[in-house]
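Data availability (excerpt). The following record was deposited with the supplementary files.
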Amino acid sequence: MERKTPLISPEDLRRQAEISEYIKGWWQSQGVTPVAYVETYGCQQNEADSEQIRGLLERCGYGFTDSAEGADLVIVNTCAIREHAAQRVFGNVGALVHTKRRHPGQKIFVCGCMMGKPEISERMKKSYPHVDGIFSPHHLWELPEQLYRVLIRHRKAYAVEDSAGAIAEGLPLVRTNKLKAWVSIMYGCNNFCSYCIVPYVRGRERSRLPEDILAECRGLIAEGYKELTLLGQNVNSYGKDLGSGVDFADLIAQVAELPGEFTVRFMTSHPRDASHKLFDTMASHEKIAKQFHLPFQSGNDRILKEMNRHYDRARYLELIDYGRRLMPDIVFTSDVIVGFPGETEEEFEDTISLIEQVRFEALFTFIYSPRPGTPAAAMPDPTPKEEKNRRFDRLLAVQNAISEEKHRALIGKTLRVLVDGKDGELLTARTDGGRLVRLEGDDALIGQFINVTITDATTWSLVGSVAP
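Predicted structure:
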């Protein structure tokens, strides 16, 4: 097997571990147990990255706090997908000048996808002098070295060099949830959708070896985790760079065949690469959740072509139909963009008609936000903001009515759920299809799979009671 994606060498990883031990000893010599605050924006992959950041910091001797106030170290893990999120980052990083003034020894790092864009990392260097370090996703594994440079050598640390990306295997993790775990199976993206910045900031697709993923999953199951979510920007492309003959359907089947009581989920998928084989695998394995998040983005073929999505409406609907023929109760969710440059009213209506035809359980909806550096950002966009807002509101009304109707159809049915926490006095749980259920019950149920009878429903959640 000839692997196309480079691995960070054991020697380089060992060096980072040695630096971590040095930093830990340095703090101990001062009689201090430092605390760090990690703030995360964006997608599940960013959440998984923050778990690695916390793991590296713990190895450096840090504990953790839930506030920047008084923290010895603040790390802001950013997202570059939406303009609103980017502006929030700039505002919140700017406000950290006050916490640093009150705690002069505080060190501040900014990382994540925004720092993968040269113009933004340069802006951060020049306009935010209170920021001590910057690193892009490609350099996360080097955090101990960057921290050493700031703490011990009293210099700024910048690690933002562009890269196609590599894989650092075996980094320590501190997970914030003891029942549900993110398991990154691949990084980067090769699709270059015309509106999306991800391939430019996270690099090319690169897959972890199946044996490394399975070893991580075995460990999580042994620790008592009940839900594993396999993560990638496009999980359907898994394995193409490995040449091992193991594709995503093969991988998720291998995970589902591991012993133990757990559910396995995945996200996100691209319709271009979604296969009948994957649906067949889902249908034949009880432990694979019958939920499929399959972003369609637009119901109009011209817009899909302008988006560089490499499928059409007919192909998308065929996938939905195939999945439902195999698994009538499968839950489909999706992403959709309203107001893509040049979208006409008629083309928007094609999106509405697709939603009405598919009848998704839920949608993640976005008004188009131009990202500098992407092809779509240079496209003519004559539609006024007010018109885009009107379309967005109409789309929400259509989907919300469908969601509520589908939820109310479950009243009286008994469903298997994983009880995963509390919301006020009520327990919270998730169905196999990912629906939120609130119910009364003893806290001892948290972490268990149980059956609940649905007694009421809203647009966004269900109400249930423990089934006898």
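Summary of structural features: The radius of gyration is 23 Å.
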